[in-house]
Amino acid sequence: MIEISLKERVGQLKLTHTRKLNVMGNALVTQLINGLAKLVADGALVVIIKTLPGVKVWSAGYDINELPPHGQDPLECDEPLRRAVRAMQACPVPILMQLEGSVWGGACELVMNADIIVAAEGSVISFTPSRLGVPYNPSGIMSFLNCIPLHVLKEMFYRAQQVPAERLAQYGVINYVVPSHELAAFTLDIALDITKTAPLANSVFKEQVTSITNSIPLTSNEFERIEASRRAVYCSHDYLEGVTAIKEKRSPVFKRR
What we know:
By secondary structure, the protein is an alpha/beta fold. The chain has one domain (about 1-180): 2-enoyl-CoA Hydratase, Chain A, domain 1 (Alpha-Beta Complex), CATH 3.90.226.10. It has eleven helices and ten strands. The strands form two sheets. Strands 1-2-3-5-7-10 form a six-stranded mixed sheet, with helices on both faces. A four-stranded mixed sheet has the order 4-6-8-9. A hairpin with a 2-residue loop joins β1 (about 1-5) and β2 (about 10-15). α2 packs parallel to α3 (about 105-110). It starts with a strand and ends in a 10-residue tail after the last helix.
């Protein structure tokens, strides 16, 4: 599902499970986490995450076939997306995302936890939990709030439509948008620049930024209230309908219950 390579201290993780649209299931996420760890152990000073060139879908997001049964939290701490995000945040070297095609659902959060994002022209981001009726959790929301202006994020969540990379670049969410034929070389040039800088300084900088931006000042009462609200959502008819509709490839009919 993932090819790993290391050259000139630049590690590369290539998502190759394109037959299944690189869905973020347990198997792919485990290979991603292990690949990051191996590249760092082998001396990588920066890692690029990408997929095969020319694909229409970078990742279709969370593997809905691995969602827990109705009535269980779909975003509990050990589910694939949460594990992948934690691994990226804990990775001591900068991570570059090389995007091409469309990014959907939970894969959007993975992208937003990269340190630098480079996208091909015409790429799109689709943040779609509201299509499924998924109650996103505070840590996931923080991943987006740390990168995306609030009103833009609200529109992305409420509308669940494709947002062009070019628009997100205007807000600094994506660092660069380049022609697709220049994407690989452009991203590699950035990675090679990073290999010429001090790795220890980069590591401690990333650690501090991650700690500061992940600080959520919630009281115990607020946390319990949020969890109760989320529980009501993932136990609802709407959540069951959203997941069922996606599997049946039809539009959901939500009833607010």
